[in-house]
């Protein structure tokens, strides 16, 4: 609804209320009402709150620099019914977007990024070298426990809570030998492996004054992939029935808008080789600064939002690149899940795949982007390559669960944290917490070097 995107919440609410007079609301109008509530949760700061949050990082903050950063648009803001509200993560994003602000920080510290996204490293070389050899691929065996815990009394005692936790599907050459180990409050009901957003499903009654925990544990082997593409071999693809869905628009997040066409033309120029076009687009999206994003369910079009805002997180960058690739006749699709490391780093993450003939489907991770370092063969590792430190939960976005949810979802695009509901409605992120624990295991003998 344009009124919601434009911040005219009071007017939108009046129209929704009028539409519901004498009967129930349509699902779309009910969701627009919920979307306004979610937007208010994301844009939680007024100007004084924003200033106070920045001052905690810069105690001697000057008013002139604060105003200059605000005028430059470095703080994500939205006018809601005439009042300027600021995104709750805007103070954190400032230090990602402004070198000047980073230099003013009282206690400078690096961002806790994945070790894999900083520069070329031994693992990238390992994946490349293993892929070029006749031996087994670079692989990691991992045991994962993921949990979702509903807060005490978020649901009336005795009512049944339904929960969906993400669960991986076997993908040949990417993640294999998946073994379910257990769950809480018991073994889950697994969605079929054909489900593109696969889940482990649970039910459990709420108890007064007690949190309600759901968890699933499993092991799997994750394999790194790498293809060194020779641009001279790459030819345009034909829109076969199998590839056609990955060449077309898909409202609301993949739309060939005028702004998207203009940006594409500026980046691609007169290039006609599909790989070189993909590389130009990959590099252009990689140049968009990373910043923490509001909840995806509140954004009308993630790809367009990234293009307009000039900053984006992994999912927004990925959908922007998918849109641009499809616009240029290069099939592209979504994948997402969780990344981790040999140390203590883990996080939700989105990436994708593109199709280049004659190579077939190749992974791409534009958020990790170009890798600085001395080896030119690794600079574009993530355009045709993938590390072995990520588990994929989603082979598409916004797909139905098995079993289906009754109420609308907290996350309308991804499934990484989980979902929960009861007869009275959906349970949003402010009503439950989540966790992801992992342990690297010894590899089976046949997967060692």
From TrEMBL:
Gene3D superfamilies to which the protein is assigned, alphabetical: 3.10.620.30
Q: Which residues form the Transglutaminase-like domain?
A: 306-368
SMART domains named among the record's database cross-references? TGc (SM00460)
Q: Which residues form a coiled coil?
A: none
Superkingdom is Bacteria
* The name this protein goes by in its record: Transglutaminase-like domain-containing protein
């Amino acid at each position: 609804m344009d009124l919601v995107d434009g911040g005219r919440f009071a007017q939108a609410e009046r129209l929704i209320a009028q539409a519901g007079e004498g009967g129930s609301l349509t699902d779309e109008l009910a969701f627009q009402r919920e979307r306004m509530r979610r937007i208010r949760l994301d844009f939680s700061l007024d100007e004084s709150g924003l200033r106070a949050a920045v001052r905690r990082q810069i105690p001697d903050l000057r008013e002139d620099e604060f105003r200059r950063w605000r005028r430059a648009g470095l703080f994500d803001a939205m006018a809601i019914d005439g009042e300027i509200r600021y995104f709750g993560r805007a103070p954190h994003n400032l230090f990602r977007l402004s070198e000047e602000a980073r230099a003013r920080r009282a206690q400078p510290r690096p961002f806790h990024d994945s070790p894999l996204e900083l520069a070329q490293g031994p693992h990238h070389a390992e994946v490349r070298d293993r892929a070029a050899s006749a031996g087994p691929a670079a692989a990691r065996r991992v045991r994962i426990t993921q949990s979702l815990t509903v807060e005490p009394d978020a649901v009336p005692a005795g009512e049944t809570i339904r929960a969906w936790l993400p669960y991986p599907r076997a993908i040949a050459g990417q993640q294999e030998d998946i073994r379910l180990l257990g769950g809480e409050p018991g073994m889950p009901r697994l969605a079929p492996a054909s489900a593109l957003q696969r889940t482990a499903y649970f039910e459990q009654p709420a108890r007064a004054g007690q949190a309600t925990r759901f968890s699933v544990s499993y092991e799997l082997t994750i394999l790194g992939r790498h293809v060194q593409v020779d641009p001279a071999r790459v030819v345009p693809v034909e829109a076969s029935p199998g590839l056609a869905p990955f060449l077309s628009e898909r409202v609301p997040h993949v739309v060939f808008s005028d702004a998207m066409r203009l940006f594409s033309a500026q980046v691609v120029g007169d290039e006609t080789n599909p790989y070189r076009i993909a590389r130009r687009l990959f590099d252009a999206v990689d140049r968009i600064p990373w910043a923490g994003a509001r909840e995806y369910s509140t954004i009308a079009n993630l790809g367009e939002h990234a293009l307009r805002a000039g900053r984006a997180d992994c999912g927004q960058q990925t959908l922007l690149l998918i849109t641009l690739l499809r616009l240029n006749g290069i099939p592209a699709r979504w994948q997402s899940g969780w990344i981790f490391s040999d140390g203590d780093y883990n996080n939700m993450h989105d990436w994708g795949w593109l199709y280049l003939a004659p190579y077939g489907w190749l992974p791409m991770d534009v958020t990790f982007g170009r890798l600085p370092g001395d080896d030119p063969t690794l600079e574009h590792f993530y355009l045709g390559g993938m590390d072995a430190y990520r588990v994929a939960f989603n082979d598409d976005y916004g797909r139905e669960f098995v079993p289906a949810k009754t109420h609308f979802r907290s996350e309308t695009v991804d499934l990484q944290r989980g979902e929960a509901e009861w007869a009275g409605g959906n349970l949003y992120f402010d009503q439950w917490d989540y966790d992801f624990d992992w342990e690297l295991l010894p590899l089976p003998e046949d997967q060692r070097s």
